[in-house]
Records
---
Amino acid sequence: MKEQILSTLDDTHVWACAFAKTLHAPATVALHGDLGAGKSEIARTIIQTLRGENTVVPSPTFTIVQSYDEISHFDLYRIIDKSELTEIGLQHAIEKDITLIEWPEIASDILPVGTIHIYLENYDSGRKLIIK
């Protein structure tokens, strides 16, 4: 387990940029945390680091998944039934892409061994990031 305090948004970007450079497909990253904890910001920074800083990265809250040439970004917040995970192509993405998953709890039984779990918690004026 590794912990880090991210005091500012810049700290979050620096950390996520460095982390992104360690990822190679296939890799699964599960992003845990409350609303506003920074999950989307970390995912956005990872994608822009790997696909170019001008890459437009909208939140997949309504679309559920956004794809960026071997990177898949899922937001499972609105998924109610596990059968929907097949319909949205989660297993396929896990097998071939760098897969970033916000709200991964509903998919816990299909996440592969080696999934990187990142937990974000509010901490003072910033965030505490815990990697398991």
---
Amino acid sequence: MGRSSSWLSLALDSWSLGLDASAVIGLRAVKLAAGGSAATVEAQRMVDEKIAAAVDLQMLAMTGGLGPTMHSAAARSVRHYAGKIRANGRRLARPKR
């Protein structure tokens, strides 16, 4: 992420975000399908994280934190979600102890 300020770069970052999100969806689906208390915790965590990420992004938008242009707003929105998705991917891919 963050290569240049071109729309092509933003498109590639968005595409990468989609791939990462798909991987996280798969990892979460496996965890949820296994059932049990871990699945319940993961389902609640997923909902809580989605709400928090949306509220955080809305606050950035309302306070000017996404920048003055459409491009900067889109790029910062992608970066906002990308970090969260990557963190979930790392957490879900860790082997169980």
---
Amino acid sequence: MKNVKFYFLVLLLAAAVSCKKDGGSSSINIKGNVSNDEAADMVAASMSSNFNGVAGVSGDVTVSAQAFVNVHLACGATKSDSVSRSYSGTQVSYNYKLKYSYTLNCNSSNVPDNLSSSLSYSGSYDGPRIASSNSGSSSFTVAGLASTATNFGISGEYKRDGSFKSKVDTTNAGSSHIDINVQSLVVTKIGHKIASGSATFTITGNVPKKGDFSFTGSIVFNGDGTAKLTVNGTIYIVNLETGEKTKK
């Protein structure tokens, strides 16, 4: 009888230790990853014009491309430009400093063919769901400089690194890296609005004491001021001006 009791006690202790280990491991895994929604918030901000995202940068580079053509600059001409943007409201505030560098490239007939642009920036934004201080870069090529072209075409890469703090789950604060690869983004020559295009992205980061996180997905620009953002299979519609998103 004593042996049976001892064996039963050993089983209980082993089960308790196992539960403690499993519970600890599960907690770490759950806390280690930010949610789909929080990842979507960060990517949406990196897309929107209000938060110095792809939509804002695409407007800047196409305006400069048109200016290069209008003043008939020579092939290989370069130009640098500095821009500051800030806004403070009840729901949204941001402050960014941008430094652009442009080069006009011509074809074999010495006719302007495309404009290459590089950007470095730093700043911060504070929105309803997330706040971030960040810096980054972009490298975009703007095609469609010919007067016969009705739209500009943009391809290239946009990057953002920095810190973030979720306002939905205040325990989620850490570092993030966002990389958006833009393919054939179409921007109108009148109004410099995004008409169509697509992109892919990766977002990685770390929440101290919780662990690393990683998400991948795609972006489809709808041509109506919104884009479809897919994060690990979850679809959101993003307002390209404000960065606000809704789950579809």
---
Amino acid sequence: MHVSKRLQKLKPSETIAITTRARELQAAGKDVIVLAAGEPDFSPAGFVREAAAVFAREGMTRYGPAPGTLETRQELAAFLERTRGVSYTPEQIVVTNGGKHALFNALAGLIDPGDEVLILAPYWVTYPAQVELLGGVPVYLSADDAQGFKVTPEQLSAALSTKTRCVIFNNPSNPTGAYYTADEVRALTEVCVEAGVVIVSDEVYDAIIFDGGPYLSPASVSEEARDLTVIASSLSKAYAMPGWRIGYLAGPPDWVKKVASFQGQTSHHISLLSQAAAAVAVSGDQAPVEEMRVAFRKRRDFLLDAFRDIPGFEIAVAPEGAFYLFPRITGLIDAIPEVENSVDACAWLLDNAMVALVPGSAFGAEGFLRLSYAASEEDLEKAVQRLSETAGNLIG
């Protein structure tokens, strides 16, 4: 059967590929520790699960409005008012099938074939793939560990062109955990506003911040910025609800209306049961969110201390948010004759240490790897021991 050129060019997700390979080894009886996927090892708050059970018993199984139920969009609007200080009406919000779907809808509503999308690197693996699927052209703006994995306003301004349709901004960052402070967000946003360039703000990790001060969305910077910002987010991370597939986007009313029509002709709406649970999660007690953030910070601190003694790994930038460590591994690569890059290194570590990690090249940063600490403390301790012993035996 013919495969479209669009799909022929599509590269599989390295994160999913590594996780799949690790699961296969586990199924074969291997004791593999999987630190590849960004999936919290927590469960949603008890009151959310209990509410979902009630909704299920009540038979919430009908079709609903394409952009999401009014009740869910009202609660999300109230949530954004509380957390961002920006007023959105329910008509300015579309509920999506997770954060990935929110991003795809946002880009589908913004770019035409040939339009350039500026992607700050290191970046989440899905950004360039979605841009290319829609006929856009990814343009990369890199910031390495020497500058804290954060681009400057001067870099951003120099990278914009007449073909730039939008900038994808992720704060805190997947994969680095880098966090742009309020002043830094304000400065970058003002560059985009001056140029009239849309910001697609991926805010899925906004509640998982350890250092750097309070969170600021580009949409909160000014009225002009709000009109040039699309917020794309989900409940997968902060509310530990990845399997519920709850995402959303918020933006200018006329534009959102078109995106809602697009969703109506593609996926229609997401599960009414998941939407109702999401409304309960964002409007209810936020203590479980804070408890999870504290737990992630504890894990981060443990890893930062532990990796100081693992040869071949160098952590120049302590993550200030999200739940990822992004160490430089050039020392490890140089020490293994059969390893030439981060892909080889992760394959070697999977085979020799039985720890599944993601190569930095998947995120546009060769010579690094990503470790997710959305895993139990026991697994993290075992992983550190295995990596330390394996690298120590090799490098000494």
